[in-house]
Design a protein that fits this description.
The complex is a heterodimer of chains A (198) and B (499). In chain A, helix 2 runs parallel beside helix 6. The longest helix of chain A is centred in the first third of the chain and has 24 residues. Chain A is built from 6 helices and 6 strands; from the N terminus they run αββαβααβββαα. Chain A has one domain: Maf protein (Alpha-Beta Complex), CATH 3.90.950. Chain A is of the alpha/beta class. In chain A, strands 1, 2, 3, 4, 5 and 6 form a 6-stranded mixed beta sheet that branches. Chain B has an 18-stranded antiparallel beta barrel. The longest helix of chain B is centred in the N-terminal third of the chain and has 19 residues. Chain B is mainly β. Helices cover 9% and strands 47% of the residues of chain B. The chains are: A alpha/beta (198), B mainly beta (499). Chains A and B meet through helix 1, helix 4, strand 4, strand 5 and strand 6 of A and helix 1, strand 1, strand 2, strand 3 and strand 6 of B.
């Protein structure tokens, strides 16, 4: 059978449209509902960015904080953001281990029932196929303020390939945002689910 | 026991448990992998080999094939963000353009090479300086639409570099040897020096400039050092008739073909960069310029009456230059809904030695690409891209416009001794591409990974202007004939990711 050009193009167009429809569908799939606390729970949220290049400690970009706050709200947790101002940066510079930092957050936010600490360390990796490749190492710790033995943790690395050389740690962390939000959501589901289990 | 004592006790016991769970981060021995993958299925119903056009002048999308790069990093001494201790890491990159089932190379490892191997160290001797020993490739950015990096230095160099970064200043200086990349098995030392300075001027503007210089010294007695065979006419060199002509003119000196004369050779490039952005919908604009003097070629070989002769070609190839200017602008027209990237490229190649035959060293080209990406939702996007390009040969015809152009070589007429090729000196190309993009990580023209389902179309005044196994020579024409085809359609199912 000889396939004419018109028939071939028609078949190709049909195939493209069919696969496009299949491609759109996953974006519309329903997501799993988050695990919600039984009552609104005051939660201290702190995201600290450590720049490996110069040792600076600073807050995360607003977009990441906003995304994380939305994850907390979705779980009936009332977020209270702890900004990394000069005092907080000094405190974290002095307290380099996660337990010490969690303890400091507990002391700073006595009204918080839960503590969520996101420690992000961003380091330049290399130039890769036209991009500037960074590594964002993240440690997420979520714990009841009154009982740190129930803390849930997650550690992971997010590779980020930035388009521009002038973009630095903050942009890398922002680009890693979707992965970080997803991991924080998972940690919160574990913690909240465990706390509300009979 | 009061509540506060109980609470304190719980916190302390919790801290003990948390401390036990979170061991201190390792100070050495950490291994990491980064890389880049690109693979596509593009069955071409018109007989091409899976690319819409000849090269990425028409936009990299659908004009590039499979590619894979993996870079391993091992922290011998991990960098401590809150300490100024020395640190060092080892890097090894393997890359190549073949993937099993996706191209003619079928993924065999002979398509891959160790392209980078280097050690980096910091907090040694000087503050804010990163030392690099090994391969030194470095660029100031990329024209993403073209996959080109005009502001690049040391791509061909192994040696030592020092990079100073503090505040708005980024200074790179390096020295090394480019002989192996330029000459391969015909290695001869090629000392290289260069670098760049990049300055950030406020929060919206960046400026950079630099260059690289290579010198291949005269070395008597070294057969791979630069030499010239005396009294070679350029046309004879092009036609591979130097020896034939010499023996015609010197019939009684059969064993006295002229000895090569040693000389030196040099080459290099100057690069410039201007970046600005963060202004309204303009995310960033990159402008790059590169002016390069190519390194002369070593030699060519001719066979005459069963004997091979090496013709040394330094003076025949030492006037080749290239000017490349590119611009790329990224716009966020409607945040989270519509992004646009516009890019333009101009290139001019000149060969001062060659005034008689078309070649890649005697041409100019200009191109522009516009890509729009519409975000149907966070992960599913609609991509629409168009490009237009003109390529002009400045030494006569270089392209075949018609199915029977195979019979034309000089002024559009048959000439078996002609140096031109085809019946036109200009190639005009238009491409359009559209399709669905699935980005799991959300909106963004350059967000990866990307899974794409694309349709592309090209129109060119050149006949069959895409890689194929169509008729190429007159003897093939006799068997297979040729087809007039200026439109090219191609579907693509592809993936691209950095990790």
């Amino acid at each position: 059978m000889v396939l004419t050009r018109r028939a071939a193009l028609g078949a190709l167009t049909s195939a493209l449209l069919s696969i496009a429809l299949v491609g759109v569908t996953p974006g519309c799939l329903p997501k799993t509902a988050p695990v919600r606390a039984s009552a609104a729970t005051p939660t201290a949220l702190c995201v600290v960015l450590t720049k490996v290049n110069d040792g600076t400690l600073t807050s995360a970009p607003a977009s990441l904080n906003k995304g994380l706050e939305e994850e907390l709200v979705a779980r009936n947790l009332t977020p209270s953001l702890v900004e990394i101002d000069a005092a907080a940066a000094d405190a974290f510079r002095a307290r380099r281990s996660t337990p010490q930092r969690v303890e400091w957050l507990v002391s700073k936010r006595a009204d918080a029932a839960l503590i969520v600490l996101v420690e992000a360390q961003v380091e330049y990796y290399t130039q890769m196929s036209g991009r500037f490749r960074w590594t964002v190492d993240v440690r997420v710790t979520a714990s009841p303020a009154s009982d740190l033995s129930q803390a849930v943790q997650s550690e992971f690395s997010v590779p980020v390939a930035l388009q521009y050389q002038h973009e630095r740690e903050e942009v890398a962390l922002e680009e890693a945002g979707p992965v970080i939000e997803r991991q924080v959501a998972s940690v919160l589901d574990q913690l909240v689910g465990g706390l509300s289990a009979p | 026991m009061s509540d506060s004592i109980l609470r304190r006790g719980l916190i302390l016991s919790g801290l003990f448990a948390l401390n036990a769970a979170l061991a201190p981060a390792a100070l050495a021995g950490r291994a990491e992998v980064g890389g880049y993958f690109r693979v596509a299925a593009r069955p071409d119903l018109q007989g091409g080999n899976g690319r819409l056009g000849y090269w990425n002048l028409y936009g990299r999308l659908m004009n590039e094939g499979s590619y894979a790069a993996v870079e391993m990093k091992f922290d011998v001494l991990e960098r401590q963000p809150l300490a100024k201790d020395p640190w060092t890491s080892l890097h090894l990159r393997i890359e190549g353009g073949s993937v099993s089932n996706a191209d003619a190379g079928n993924g065999y490892l002979n398509n891959y090479r160790v392209s980078q191997l280097y050690a980096r160290a910091g907090n040694v001797l000087l503050p804010n300086v990163t030392w690099q020993v090994g391969t030194l490739d470095m660029f100031m950015g990329e024209l993403g639409m073209y996959d080109m990096r005009p502001a690049q230095v040391f791509f061909d160099t192994v040696g030592l570099s020092a990079r100073y970064e503090k505040g708005p200043v980024d200074l790179l200086l390096g020295v090394g040897d480019s002989g192996y990349w330029q000459r391969g098995a015909s290695y001869h030392a090629m000392p290289t020096a260069g670098g760049y300075l990049r300055m950030r001027l406020g929060s919206h503007v960046e400026l950079g400039g630099g260059g690289q210089y290579r010198l291949q010294p005269m070395t008597e007695g070294h057969r791979f050092a630069p030499h010239n065979t005396p009294d070679v006419a350029y046309e004879d060199y092009l036609r591979q008739e130097v020896t034939e002509r010499w023996f015609e003119e010197n019939p009684n000196e059969l064993r006295d073909f002229p000895n090569p004369v040693p000389t030196s050779a040099q080459s290099g490039q100057i690069i410039g960069y201007l970046g600005f952005g963060g202004l309204g919908p303009l995310r960033w604009n990159n402008t790059f310029i590169r002016y390069e003097k190519m390194h002369p070629q070593l030699s060519t070989t001719e066979t005459y009456e069963g004997t091979s002769y090496t013709i040394y070609t330094n003076d025949l190839t030492d006037e080749r230059t290239m000017l490349l200017v590119g611009n790329e602008m990224q716009l966020r027209l409607i945040p989270q809904r519509l992004d646009v990237v516009w890019a333009a490229l101009y290139g001019q190649h000149q060969d001062g030695d060659n005034d008689i035959a078309p070649s890649d060293h005697d041409r100019w080209y200009a191109s522009t690409v516009l890509r729009t990406q519409i975000y149907l939702n966070d992960t599913v996007h609609l991509l629409v891209e168009s490009s237009i390009a003109r390529e002009v040969s400045t030494n006569g015809n270089a392209y075949r416009e018609h199915a029977d152009s195979i019979f034309a070589s000089e002024g559009g007429l048959p000439d078996t001794r002609g140096l031109e090729y085809g019946d036109t000196d200009t190639r005009d190309t238009w491409q359009g591409k559209t399709g669905i993009v699935f980005n799991p990580l959300g909106p963004g023209v350059y967000v990866r990974p990307s899974l794409r389902l694309l349709y592309g179309v090209q129109h060119s005044n050149q006949n069959n202007a895409f890689g194929s196994a169509f008729v190429d020579t007159q003897d093939q024409f006799a068997d297979f004939k040729s087809v007039e085809r200026h439109w090219h359609h191609l579907g693509s199912l592809e993936m691209e990711a950095w990790f």
